[in-house]
Amino acid sequence: MKKINLAVVGATGMVGRTFLKVLEEKKLPIENFYVFASARSAGSTLTFMGKAYTVIELTETSFKEHQVDIALFSAGGSTSEKFAPIAAESGCIVIDNSSAWRMDPNVPLVVPEVNPEAIKNHKGIIANPNCSTIQAVVALKPLYEYYGIKRIVYTTFQAVSGAGMGGWNDLEEGLQGHAPKKFPHPIANNCLPHIDVFLDNGYTKEEMKMVEETRKIFSDQSLRITSTTVRVPVFNSHSESINVELNKPFEINELKDVLAKGDGIVIQDDVANNVYPLAINATDHDEVFVGRIRRDESIDNGVNMWVVADNIRKGAASNAVQIAEWIIAHMM
Questions:
Q1: Residue 12 — pLDDT band, cuts 50, 70, 90?
Q2: 238 catalytically annotated
Q3: Which of 61, 168, 179, 311 sits at a 20 to 30 Å CA gap from 222?
Q4: Gap between the Cα atoms of 316 and 72, Å rounded
Q5: Are 71 and 83 a contacting pair, CB within 8 Å?
Q6: Which of 92, 131, 191, 330 is catalytic?
Q7: Mean pLDDT across the stretch 211-227?
């Protein structure tokens, strides 16, 4: 396998640090490794694979000077908007974790278990979907292929780590009685039906991300989808209640078998022994855990399921590294 020059942009944040951890675990064939950041962080050092690396200031010539093959971006939308096209022009493939490019029609939005073939259509930039969308579509993919999907109802229970260190600190400090700094209300002992900004249609931006990204990933604008996203007092791993109306009738045991064979899915569904997916068990794993699988008796061909995954790993860093692995294996 060809060795590559790989860069991480924004390695000091929560997702960026997880990039490094996942890259160490996956052992990609890296020849040269670079860490780019703003001038403020330049000159500091971090450790990767037991070796100290000096953080390099990100400039318009960084990718060309260092002949970077693949760059993992986790430095925010404005940085991605400016530097991802510059990197792509230098021949680098950017895998971007921000929301900047997700809905651009010329940029593939990829979950490797669901639509890896979309990677082939990249023009230098590939977008990582929203964390809550990633775990949902992994669970939905087998049902979409086997039965077809008419309608999806998402209700999410999202951990504070999805809001970065500010969200994490709000919960940690809120449990000690301090006022919130990141969220508009206390998150400790509370649930906030409010993630990202409210839009004119009454939905939040996070809710509409799930709707639009799901349609794009499945390349199916006919999907009817609604979403309610809730921030909950959990440090890590998102949980989701997903209600699906299928196009075809199903037997529940057959449907469970279909799900169990899905790529990246682990079934935990033994309610007699209180076995179902839990956020504390999903943390530090890359799989998507699915349970509470049961027929929705209020409609024809309806099913409910409970879907849990680590939002920082599978919902961000691991998904991006999986995309890089696919590129190395199939396009280099």
A1: confident
A2: yes
A3: 311
A4: 11
A5: no
A6: 131
A7: 98
